[in-house]
Amino acid sequence: MGLLSPDITRHIGASLPPFRFEVSRNDIRKYAIATGQRNPRFLSGDEAPLLFLFSAMIPLTPLDQLRPDGHHPDNPLIPALPLKRIMAGGSEFEVLGRIRGGETLIVRQRILDIHEKSGASGPLIFLVLENRFEREDGSPVVIEKLTRIAR
Predict the structure, then answer these.
(1) pLDDT-derived band of residue 60, with 50, 70 and 90 as boundaries?
(2) Pick from 23, 69, 12: which is nearest to 46 by CA?
(3) Which residues contact 41 (CB under 8 A, 6 or more apart)?
(4) What does the pLDDT read at residue 99?
(5) DSSP 71-131
(6) Is the Cβ–Cβ distance between 50 and 142 less than 8 Å?
(7) Judging by beta carbons within 10 Å of its beta carbon (0-12, 13-18, 19+), is residue 23 exposed, middle or buried?
(8) 57 φ, ψ (degrees, to nearest 5)
(9) Which of 26, 57, 66, 132 is 20 to 30 A from 75 in CA distance terms?
């Protein structure tokens, strides 16, 4: 253990500049069809299913800027870690409102915690991130707490 240097832990509380995300009715309809949604409010584009918000977190990246493995560059919020393989560790959602077609959401990202644990195959570093989706008046719509695990 002892992989977390002060240079890494100082990133706890770090955030990226907020950005705007347009919830397009047409994009909702495309997502609903692609994911087999049957609810008329999703198919009409009036409201987006919760997981539609993943599209807000995936930047449009030109092909020549993708990594050699075809993935997007790493999230700039995540500090350089001594363990390089980062895996999904789960998400928790607090849904406070509906995601309505035609509105613009403000997205705020920050690191809530970075800690280390010992796993069966060796040390693990846990990164706990928060994605807040808010209306332009500041009222929260969805708060996602997600965990990434480096091994």
Answers:
(1) confident
(2) 23
(3) 47
(4) 96
(5) PPPPPTTSPP-S---EEEEEEEEEE-S-EETT-EEEEEEEEEEEEEEEETTEEEEEEEEEE
(6) yes
(7) buried
(8) -95, -5
(9) 26
Contact 145, 134 (CB under 8 A): no
Average pLDDT over every residue of 89-108: 96
The larger pLDDT score, comparing residue 79 to residue 113, is at 113
Q: Which residues have C-beta within 8 Å of that of residue 112, sequence separation ≥ 6? A: 12, 128, 129, 130, 145
13, 109 Cβ separation under 8 angstroms: no
pLDDT at 30: 95
SS3 for 138? coil
Percentage above 70 pLDDT, the chain: 97
- pTM equals 0.86
CB contact set of 89 (below 8 Å; sequence gap of 6+):
126, 146, 147, 148, 149
72 vs 137: CA distance, rounded Å: 31
Q: Match 């919830």 to its residue by tokens.
A: 23
